[in-house]
Amino acid sequence: MSQDIELSTLYVELDCLLDTRLSLIAEYGEKAVEIALQKGYLTRLTDSFEGIDPEDYKRVYEQRNKSLLKNAIVTPIINMVRSFVIETIKTSTNSPFNLRPNVVVNAYPYVLNSEEEEVLLSIIGIALDGACDIRLIYKPMEDILPSMVKTAYSVMIMYRYDLWAEYHAQKKHFEKVICPDVTVIGPQLYFNGLPKIEDLSKIDNNKNPFQYLEECFKPIINLITYPASFFSVNINDGNTEGFTFKTSS
After folding, report:
1. Is 211's pLDDT higher than 70?
2. pTM for the whole thing?
3. 32's torsion region: left (phi>0), alpha (psi -120 to 50) or beta?
4. Which of 87, 192, 232, 236 is 20 to 30 A from 79 via CA?
5. Are the C-beta atoms of residues 133 and 40 closer than 8 Å to each other?
6. Please, what's the largest Cα pairwise distance for the chain?
């Protein structure tokens, strides 16, 4: 008698698979990109860039559309997704569990036509060696309810995980359902500006601020943060290996 297949699902935002931040900076001109890279774009701790008004950047990013995807290059997050797929298959092979890897890509807020969706699914499928099912969804963070997360996903990769958690905390959704077994991966960024010295002084000397943040989140989600370079174009040694997603005008 065959075992029932159990899906192990990873949720990832298109904004994590593609470096839409650098793509937006390019809207300010090639010089802006050059300056950003020279000033430590890959090691940044905030999404603030020299010569670009932060409020203007925030406004443009919040209003982003698929034109921003035209020159957006894949990030190392694709390797993280590939590792998830490989490890899930290994676990299924070497254990009594019949697990099948599944990847859900949230394209929000980019409205793609059917042809673009097919192209996107195809190139992600190639990047993942065709080893799993891939599905596109289009959902704002308000619709990604903790109750859904708990039952649907093993891992979530989100850029602004803080906004998602804050929204559902304010709506008291975490009072009904918590997801401590779901791993949520996000960037090591200070989204509200660099912390003040007095704030850092409250943290145990044996922990950095992001380790402290991860501990604070543990009651509701298993937060793990990675350097911003994981969510940025891979330009180490001039390497930009990966795909660039093209959209129609």
Report:
1. yes
2. 0.90
3. alpha
4. 192
5. no
6. 65
